Amino acid sequence: MDLPFEVVDLPETDHPEVGDRVPDFERPLVGTEFWEDVALSDLTDEAPVVLLFHSMDGAFPATYVWNEVRDRGWLDREDCQVVGLSISSPYEHADLLDDRGVDARLYSDPSNGVAERFDIVNDLDGMAGVEEPRPAVFVLDGERVVQYAWVAEEWPDFPDYDDVEAAMDEL
User: Which residues form a coiled coil (predicted)?
Assistant: First the structure.
């Protein structure tokens, strides 16, 4: 079968692992109604966080991920918060949420600085100077300690959603 894209192996990374405390950051957090600057620690102070790094809005992986999150009912859970992060602007995030019918919140990080701090940068093939986070999922407790980590080893790649859900159930 010919794929409409090329599968690319990604280089090794030194991303946060289970038991590591992830760095705090503050970026615009976009919801369906508005956005405001919010620190990750503000969210983890409220409840555990499932932090989903995804490709730029409009790329098929972002669509697939948010369809899966929506269809699994993760956004309706009361025991944790599911929050996305990509290089897309707040305006693009608002469009993604509206187009997908998803009532989520997404961090906007156009400089890709958070992915750099997590060591999960993906330099996009054929686009000089353009990078985004590689697909990744970190399930964080109230202290920002990783309880589950998955980072793509190739692009495109998707997490094992059952494994993520199991980690959410253990919070």
Answer: none
pTM higher than 0.70 for the full model? yes
**CATH 3.10.350.10 is held by the domain 8-170:** no
Give 51's strand partners. Answer: 83, 138
Task: Give the model's pLDDT for residue 31.
Answer: 92
Alpha carbon 48 to its chain centroid, in Å, reads 15
Alpha-carbon distances, residue 107 vs 5, 25, 57, 86 (angstroms): 26, 10, 12, 7
List the chain domain ranges: 8-170
The C-alpha atoms of residue 171 and residue 116 are separated, in whole angstroms, by: 27
Mean pLDDT by 10 residues, the chain (171 residues): 69 95 98 94 98 93 93 95 97 91 94 97 74 95 98 92 97 91
Task: Give the separation between CA 118 and CA 61, rounded to whole angstroms.
Answer: 20
Residue in the block written with tokens 């494994």: 163
